[in-house]
């Protein structure tokens, strides 16, 4: 138990190194993602929304939850994607009062091309065996709870 007068627990060097490596991986992924998005004349945020929607149409609120941002931000992003013909709004078949954002055919093509242009993670992961990738996946899932 840590009391007010006891020192904070010391983080071991291995944990610090792992945290630094995770941070480096995340930073490199975001850099490459921004560059890839730019090649499609998209911002990183627009590319992330388009990528989510390519998996399944969803309401703005759910997009915001997944991206951990405000729904009003998502509305602006979807507006810009819609103006480019990459996304459309349609009624939710389960509740017609709710609008879903959904990719158009062009949006699906763009999302696929964007995914295919992201080599940063794919190349280093290809150096790992299938068992190593499965172990890494399991460890990451465990870290995320």
Q: In short, what is this structure?
A:
With 145 residues, this protein is mainly alpha-helical.
Write a structural description.
This protein is mainly alpha-helical and 145 residues long. The chain has a single domain (26-144), classed as Winged helix-like DNA-binding domain superfamily/Winged helix DNA-binding domain (Arc Repressor Mutant, subunit A, Orthogonal Bundle), CATH 1.10.10.10. 63% of the residues lie in helices and 10% in strands. It has helices spanning 13-39, 44-55, 60-67, 71-83, 105-116, 122-126, 130-144; strands at residues 87-92, 95-103. A two-stranded antiparallel ribbon has the order 1-2. A hairpin with a 2-residue loop joins strand 1 and strand 2. The mean pLDDT is 89.
Strand and helix layout:
Layout: H1 13-39, H2 44-55, H3 60-67, H4 71-83, E1 87-92, E2 95-103, H5 105-116, H6 122-126, H7 130-144
Antiparallel strand pairs: 1-2
Helix pairs in contact: 2-4, 2-5, 3-4
């Amino acid at each position: 138990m840590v009391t007010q007068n006891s020192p904070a627990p010391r983080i071991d060097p291995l944990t610090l190194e792992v945290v630094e490596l995770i941070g480096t991986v995340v930073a490199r992924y975001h850099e490459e993602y921004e560059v890839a998005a730019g090649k499609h004349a998209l911002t990183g945020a627009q590319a992330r929304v388009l990528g989510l929607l390519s998996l399944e149409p969803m309401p703005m609120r759910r997009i915001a939850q997944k991206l951990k941002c405000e729904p009003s931000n998502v509305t602006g992003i979807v507006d810009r994607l819609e103006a480019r013909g990459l996304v459309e709004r349609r009624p939710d078949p389960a509740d017609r009062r709710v609008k879903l954002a959904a990719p158009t055919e062009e949006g699906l093509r763009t999302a696929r091309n964007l995914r295919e242009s992201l080599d940063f993670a794919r190349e280093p992961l290809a150096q790992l065996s299938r068992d190593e990738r499965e172990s890494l996946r399991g460890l990451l899932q465990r870290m995320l709870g």
